[in-house]
Fold this sequence. Notes:
Blueprint: E1 2-6, H1 29-48, E2 52-55, H2 67-82, E3 87-90, H3 104-109, E4 114-117, E5 121-125, E6 130-135, H4 139-143, H5 148-165, E7 169-175, E8 182-193, H6 194-198, E9 207-217, H7 226-231, E10 236-240, E11 246-247, E12 254-257, E13 274-279, E14 291-295, E15 302-307, H8 309-318, E16 328-335, H9 337-357, E17 362-369, H10 372-388, H11 393-407, H12 411-431
Parallel strand pairs: 1-2, 2-3, 3-4, 6-7, 7-10, 10-12, 15-16, 16-17
Antiparallel strand pairs: 1-13, 5-6, 8-9, 11-12, 13-14
Helix pairs in contact: 1-2, 8-9, 10-11, 11-12
Amino acid sequence: MKIAIVADLHLNKSVYKGVADREWPQLPFRNGDFMRSFRFICDEIVKVNPNLMVINGDIYDHFEPTNEVRGFFSSQLRRLVDAKIPVIILVGNHDVCRKHHALKDIQELGLKDIRIVEKPTIYELEKPNFRLLLFPYSLDIEKGTVTSKEEFDKFLIQIKEAQDKENKTSLFFGHCGIQNAILNSYTDEEIINVKEITNTTTTPSIITPILKEKAYFNRNKKDICMEDLDKIGAKYVFLGDFHQFQVLDTKKCISMYSGSIERNSFSESRQKKGFVIYNDELDNENNMGCCRFIEYPHCRPMAELRGNLDQIKKKLQELDYSMYQEGIFKLSFIGEREQLIEFSSGLDELKKQILEKTNAIHIFHKQTINNKHMAELASKIEQRIDEKGHIEAADVIDVVKEIIDEKITDKEECKQVKELAIEIYKSSMEKT
């Protein structure tokens, strides 16, 4: 039994809208990046010729894709069906709003070899003797009538009943967050004592900045935990939602996120992207069992350079430009207010230098003035969001309140503006 597992396609990724794609000029270039990746993956899957392909959610980045993107996705499905590869598609959280999901048009076609799964479903295969346990992101979860954990617990009862009737090899496919899985990682410069890293007995004469990878882990208590995955009774668990390819620390089953098919943001700039092949005829390998990760080799290069003007200039001198052809460059000023004028006047020269050495598709900048109070506030809000794995209404409202507090000194006016902002936000959420 061979199964190709793909997740988090985000085909209508809607950033940098002002920069057109060279292959699809009517679309932003990031749309094109994700579409090219999926086309490459479909090419590889047709070569592998699996018994089945499962897409673990988030076909789209938001639930209203353009006709161009819908048509592209349909054309790739047609290629797979023509190659006699059935496709199962789980609905993901980016595919839905509170009323419907973006895959309804394909679902209504009722095609034999394309199955859209919008509710937890058990799919029995007679030949070979397999049971597929399919756990999408449902409209009930989106509406907030149940949590992902509550829906999973109900589904677990159905799974146990099916297993009691007939013993089959079970494979679980889901689009959901798992507690303590890596949400995302990024690299940052930190001042670290070399002795702590090398464990040398002599004290080093220098303290040097090095690149250190940090990871954010999912702390959302409403999500499923790793111990829950072990209760399923499945041999393998394949997941979508978190964008980093990773094998989870489960005890009774092999569990993994296949990751997104392209880099979504600068926090993913060093991650490998691709898809997973399950093949029960392969020998077990390390912690992946009979699965193999197939890398997509053409991810969009991304480089973020942070600091004041002199610091960014130095980093540009040290940069290996061969790694960033056709790349996206982000120039992030971080410094004192008086240094900002110098950065702004030197910005054009920085961009010119990058363009002379690369054919960068997009260069942009942002500015952060050192402000201890705002930095601490931003850090607290960011930590809350990172621990949950997503933004909740309370997080948005807290940010708005803090901004209003900064801008308005009159207490009564401040109170009225906050109440109005909260009312507008809640009203807009009810309409989606």
